[in-house]
Amino acid sequence: MLKTKVSFAPSVRRLPQYLHIIRASLAAGDTYISGTVIAQELNLEPIQVRKDLAITGIIGKPKKGYPVPALVQAIERYLGWDQSHTALLVGAGNLGSALAGYPEFARHGLNFVAAFDTDPGKIGKQIHGVTIHDMAKLGELAGSLKACMAVLAVPSPNAQATADILVKAGIRAIWNFTNIKLKVDPEVVVQREDLSSGFAILSVMMNTRNTCGTKPGHAKED
User: Fold this and answer.
1) What is the pLDDT of residues 12-38, one digit of tens each?
2) Would you tell me how many other CB atoms lie within 10 Å of the CB of residue 214?
3) Residue 46 maps to a domain
């Protein structure tokens, strides 16, 4: 089962992009949308779009495409975005605050029920309506908060120790925004978002196209 989920990862990453286009089509009153239209919007091959959509279980109609309302429901159901997911935010710094304030999370069913931090100056305050608690109380509060997952946005040197506390408190899914590869029990699901890797890809693309740099044939001055 785990190997299957991993093999679907690229397709799963593309589904939210498709959903954005399909929702726009729904708002425009369209009844059907073709894989070709979605592919053109994202500069993809139509066959790739059809393969990606196939994992949701929906089947398109020849020469018509996919029924738009049903396609939205199929993607949301497959992604689990038609359900409510309660989450703990661990780390109430700049990144944690930005994540708590991102409105799309609530739209996708992700709801922060509490935040935790070690900074005494932040404890008791709120970020985007979420109360910040003392990290030392996470273990005793986790059960009553009934959170199914945690978003980890602590400084990287504290990542593993914090993850250990979360697992001990009963958290079985961690969205890891640090650059540390966490070592956890096999039954704990971890998704790591390395922002440095994302910027590395963008940086290489900029260098390749000479974006934000010197023009071809013009060396930088010392």
Assistant:
1) 999 999 999 999 999 999 999 999 999
2) 10
3) yes
Q: Where are the alpha helices (DSSP H) in 67-148?
A: 68-79, 94-100, 103-107, 138-145
CATH code of 108's domain: 3.40.50.720
Q: Residues 97, 193: one domain?
A: yes
For residue 183, give the 3-state DSSP assignment. Answer: coil
Contact 97, 129 (CB under 8 A): no
Q: Check pLDDT > 50 for residue 120.
A: yes
The answer to whether position 205 is within a domain reads: no
Helix/strand/coil for 87 = strand
Q: In this structure, what DSSP letter does residue 61 have?
A: B
Q: What pTM value is reported for the model? A: 0.82
Domain span at residue 18 reads 8-79
Amino acid at 132: I
% residues pLDDT > 90 (the chain): 77
Q: Would you state the pLDDT for residue 145?
A: 92
